[in-house]
Amino acid sequence: MRPILLSALLAGACLPAAQAQTVDELVAKNIQARGGIEALRAIQSLKASGRMNFSGGDFSVDLGIVSYNERDARLRMEASIQGLTQVTAYDGREAWTINPFQGRRDPERMSAEDAKSLQVQADIDGPLVDWKAKGHRVEYLGTEDVDGTEAHKLKVSLANGDVQYRYLDPDYFLEILVVSQSMRRGVETETETELGNYEKVAGVYLPFAQESGPKGGRRGQKILLEKVEANVEIDDALFAFPVAAK
After folding, report:
1. 3-state secondary structure at position 244
2. CB-facing half-sphere around the CA of 169: CA atoms within 13 A
3. What is the pLDDT of residue 178?
4. How far is CA 18 from CA 26, 146, 150, 213, in A?
5. What is the secondary structure of 183-241 as a DSSP string?
6. What's the pLDDT score for residue 20?
7. CA 109, CA 90: separation in Å to the nearest integer?
8. pLDDT per residue over 14-65, tens digit each?
9. Which terminal residue of the chain, N or C, has fewer Cβ atoms less than 10 Å from its own Cβ?
10. Is the pLDDT of residue 186 over 50?
């Protein structure tokens, strides 16, 4: 999916190459490269829309997607095709889903274990911002090759017990790859997500393209955002478990 920095490179808005050897230095450079802490904290909500493609073997499916994210750790994601819409949401306390693709049209609460990944995604700033206050632990593991780039590697031990390895471009300090490790029902899973096509939204660089899949395997899920809006009004009811279903 590279080159992955596009507008960020063209605008020259990110930092020049530097030798950063400590966690604090790298996190500070990442925050500055994204737009700075003030710009990040000024974003109270995000609404994004675009396309998602699932492919594998002989099949390929395209879905329209919409996501809503609020600063107080609330998230809702919708994926639609042929009149059916899958919903996955987190209201800051509990997660729930509607999955008509599996014949389930009524909302169902998700287990606390399954909600872990949504808790992380709902953090509008990402885990590196204020990581100590959030209860995470971050370690710098040096550099590692990512598609020919010697990227800075940060190990992020999340407060919920999951682990992420976040790779920063050595020249511009934006994240180019995230490897996530999680334990679900006694089984460890490891996925990787490549990030790219950074565009500026309300003064903050956000990745408009993602490719995900099992580590070392085929990245069969591709997301391409077409529009992202910041600080839009979002009805709180979108995140809550549907009243009629309670």
Report:
1. helix
2. 23
3. 97
4. 10, 18, 13, 31
5. EETTEEEEEEEEEEEEEEETTEEEEEEEEEEETTS---EEEEEEEEEES----GGGTSP
6. 42
7. 10
8. 444 444 479 999 999 999 999 999 999 999 999 999 999 988 777 789 999 9
9. C
10. yes
